[in-house]
Amino acid sequence: MVTKSRNAILVSALRVSALCIVLAGFALAQGGGELRFCLHSEPKTFDPLKVEDDASVSIRYLTGGVLLRINRQTQALEPELAQSWKVSKDAKQITFKLRSGISFSDGTPFSAEDVVYTVRQLMDPALHSPTGDSFRSGPGIVETRIISPTDISITFPAPVAGLDRQFDQVAILSAHSPKKEMAVLGPFMVADYKPGATVLLVRNPNYWKTDAQGKKLPYLDSIRLDIQPNRDVEMLRFKRGEVDLINSLDSEYFDKLWQIAPQVVHDAGPSLDSEQMWFNQVEKSPLPAYKKTWFRSASFRRAISEAINRDDLSRVVFRGHAQPAVGPISPANKFWFNAKLSAAAAYSRDAALKALQGEGFQLQNGTLKDKDGNEVVFSIITNSGNKYRERMATMIQEDLGKIGIKVNVVTLDFPSLIERMTQTFEYEAVLLGLTNTGLDPNEQMNVWLSSSENHQWNPSEKTPETAWEAEIDKLMREQASSADARARKKAFDRVQEIVVDEVPFIYLVNRNALSAVAADVQGASPVILSPQTFWNADRLEVKGERLALK
Amino acid sequence: MPRHRQFASSALLQKIARHSLALVATVLLGGFLAAVLVRLAPGFEVDERQLDPRLNSESVHALVQARAAPHNIFSFYVRSLERAIHGDLGTSISLGQPVSSLLRERAPLTLRLVALGLILSWTSAMALGLSAAWLRTTAYDALTTVLSGTFLCIPAAVLALLSVLWNLPGALAIALIVFPQVHRYARNLLAKAYNLPHIITARAKGLSESRILFWHVVPVVAPQLLAVAGVSVNIAIGAAIPVEALCGLAGVGQLAWQAALARDLPLLMNVTILVTLVTLLANSSADVIGHVLRSQQA
Amino acid sequence: MRLFRNNAWRTLACAVLLVVVVVSLAANWLAPAGYAKQYREATDAAPSGQHWLGTDEIGRDRFARVLYGTRISLLLAPAAALLSTLMAALIGGLAGYLGGTWTRAAMAVTDLFLSLPWLFLLITVRAVMPLNVTPLASVVVTFLLLGLLGWTSAARVLCATAGSLRDSDFVRQARALGVRPLRLFWLHVLPNLKPVLYAQFWISIPVFILTEANLGILGLGVAEPMPSWGSLLRELEGLVSLGEEPWKFVPLVLLAVVVTSFQFVLSEQQEAAA
């Protein structure tokens, strides 16, 4: 037994030394160690322009070089590959002054041509990427002009709201590198990909940034991303010291970890994401007419919203790691949140019941009936596998039961749910979350425009079916075509007020941004914006021994 | 006598030919039925990405268009088969890679997991079943029953998570999922065999246990146990899905699960064909061996 | 002596089952607050005088949920197991007994059944069902489906058993004596299938209980707020990584005890029959 383990040590020592030699020849190892964390799904693409899913977004963040970067901590825009930039008054044109002397990971020099190439690829109408679509505010061609090898201007056919901030999402591709999208400008590059198992990133030897002492960044030698959709397994491996970071940590796990090692967990406060519920208001849906009448009545929706105890949802389901939601914008979005909407709808069973009685509803033997005697019964569908949503739905079920409404909770697999929401409209109410990646309300454009597919409560309206939807349409267009931040803010404040008043979405809670960072990771300061824990990956280090938590 | 043997072997050949023909037909039917089931299930023509509010109408339409289902599933299947003959199994919708390379990369791992899981579960199940039959102590029988009963009650996901927790190989988790089922069949069949009058008599006469086992018990229980063996392959494949998914093992089980969630028709169709093929091979070989054994006895 | 001991085990098993059934039927008295009441001030609580097994994540009394869950699962799972066992006996037994083309055709169908992705059928069933079904109707439909789909592996084993019986001397003799085939099947073949039938029945109970819980992801199975053993067992998944809270294992222990008891009840009959 002893000899066997000795042998094993010898073999692994040999392997390690062989690996070191390889690494030394490959890139100068800085001894920053290897950072390890989990991706929750298979990355769908390594092409930064096509990126949509969370896993690919994480990889793009770690590997892609961008002209401008939103500092995840200060929420301010900072220069990266561009030294400086300027947006024209009409919000159609942006000019960049690029840094010089930078090269891609494969050694190909970076120049204005690469930016032109990237923008052309991105604006290709056949690409259909969310990043590209966010720039597409009107018909016409995007013009790019190289003024000098380091100066470039890009002109859009129509004003683009928040134009400069959107470049945070545009990773620059090389126009000339034979390695195509695998030649990168970011701190890391993809070295190995085992589908279903791992993505290995190693430091980009040509990364341009240095720290204050002039030491080349990134500190880390490599990042190992394990593809692991299961949160329980992720947690297990974190406790065992096999994983260094957990983003959007479960609140239960947060509490348990806090009990054993309070220093590893971080609650950064409310995030941008919201959990919400809405009723099906589609005219042509196969619901009975009397139910459509309920769901299309704003006072019915308001009463339901009032009858839901949001404090209990945050306290019980999220163990206090969530705030009752006020409206479409989380208070965490400091600039765009409408501060006049100070508090979430107060819970009041009696007020809700009274409002419903004012609409002709009656409570008979504990059952609520509408004025024609139909029992108020509806189902809430939500996606399966999300225990928080299941629990919220069950609590809402009990809350609404107190005013005589019978709620059935049905969990569905995601494709079935999407089909009901977008094609067959065979549903009554949905409980889902909205993930906001960016701060700018323009990213929510297609939720608010009544003609859009993602106008979930009543998609693709030919003309706005209600006056308030027409007003939202007008305000959203107004803010999108303006470069004046104050005017945009005013328009979007009004949108928030209308939404809170008409309740197309019943906003429930804003979850806190919870994360865990192992003690051996140095330099981490988790934030609310994604990617919470590794936004400063180029300055992170893994030092010391990995310890299992007991 | 030699002529008789020759006749028997040509009959065997014929039987094998007939079996293989039926096998191919069943496999093809399996693939087709899988395609129909997947196609008819809701959520086939949607894409998770279409909920991204940043996408404009044209892009959402493009996504929906790309998912639009083949109108005639039968002609779609026939075309897929034609391509498959030329070695092209199609491209996975969700992963964007050729199905053949996905399967080639992942099959060995699953094969190893399932094989090891089966060996482990059968060894333990037979050991427990036989020892209980030999000892004939109710307390011991009760003990093994409680043991396998408990494993039967633990959700597969929990067993898989435990194997992650204790750093155990995934094959062990599969073995623990398969074990109670095999054990129950083996225990019942062996108990019954050892209760047969002539075996009780033989034991009373003091014949050696191994002689009783191989001369008297095995012939009685072999056909059934072979059938259980065939079926247990299928159970093990089923167990591979949660185990691979939770333990982060990149095998066919994990692939099948991802494909199901994404309604990935080409991938699901081929995975089903593969599973049907393995099931049929396992069960048919169990049948054939059983048949040979019986004809030898006769 | 052995017989007596066997009987003692069997009596014990029967007593255990009886106690479980009686206690679950008495749920209304033992847990008058019901399984759905949310004690929102005492969520995820440890056992106490008020909540004997603590509360779950949204503050529901776990003891009440176990009792009511027992009612649902202990009634429906054996029923579904019985259905699948009967189907297996009929399809597998007859196919094996009739032999020839019958066997081959039945086994080809069985193999297909074993390999098809039934998940998609279940998804379709959920789509056809209205959204506003009562939790009870949903769980009954689910168990019915499980019973209808769960017969395959047993059918294969039964077919092999019946096939070897068909070739056995006593059946040949009986046939030669002119005993009618169905009577022969009923009197001589079916009793010999018992070990397999009991195994199938016994395995099916916990397997169906667990599958029912897993089908929750498709919107089938028991719906909130109703409890079932399966949904209670799913709590264990989080437990592995969360640490020690032994009272959460009670549903698992209870299920294991019940399943083992079933085995003793059946096991005794089997040996008596032999």
- Name the overall outline of chain C: elongated
Distance between the termini of chain B: 16 Å
Percent in strands of chain C: under 5%
C-alpha-based Rg of chain B, rounded: 24 Å
Tally of strands of chain C: 0
Most extensive chain contact?
B-C, 65 and 61 residues
Unreliable spans of chain B are none
Overall shape of chain B: it is flat
Residue share in helix of chain C: over 70%
Helix content of chain B: over 70%
Q: Whole-number average pLDDT of chain B? A: 87
| Mean pLDDT across residues of chain C | 85
Oligomer: heterotrimer
Q: Give the SSE order of chain B as H and E letters.
A: HHHHHHHHHHH
**CATH superfamily placement of chain B:** MetI-like
Give the class of chain B from helix and strand content and strand pairing. mainly alpha
According to DSSP, the number of beta strands of chain B is 0
Total domain count of chain B: 1
Could you walk me through the main structural features you see in this protein, from its secondary elements to its overall organization?
- The complex is a heterotrimer of chains A (550), B (298) and C (274).
- Chain A has 550 residues and is an alpha+beta fold.
- Chain A has helices spanning 2-26, 54-63, 112-122, 130-135, 231-239, 251-260, 289-295, 298-307, 310-317, 349-358, 387-401, 414-424, 445-448, 467-480, 485-502; strands spanning 34-39, 68-70, 77-79, 82-87, 93-98, 143-148, 151-155, 188-194, 198-203, 222-227, 245-246, 265-279, 322-324, 362-364, 367-369, 377-383, 406-412, 429-434, 505-517, 521-522, 541-542.
- In chain A, strands 11, 12, 13, 16, 17, 18 and 19 form a seven-stranded mixed sheet that branches. A four-stranded mixed sheet of chain A has the order 1-10-9-8, with helices on one face. Chain A has a four-stranded antiparallel sheet with strand order 4-5-7-6, with helices on one face.
- The model of chain A is unreliable at 1-29 (pLDDT under 50).
- With 298 residues, chain B is mainly alpha-helical.
- Chain B has one domain (12-297): MetI-like (MetI-like fold).
- In chain B, helix 4 runs parallel beside helix 7 and helix 9 crosses helix 10.
Compose a concise summary of this entry.
Chain A is α+β, with helices and mostly antiparallel strands and 550 residues long.
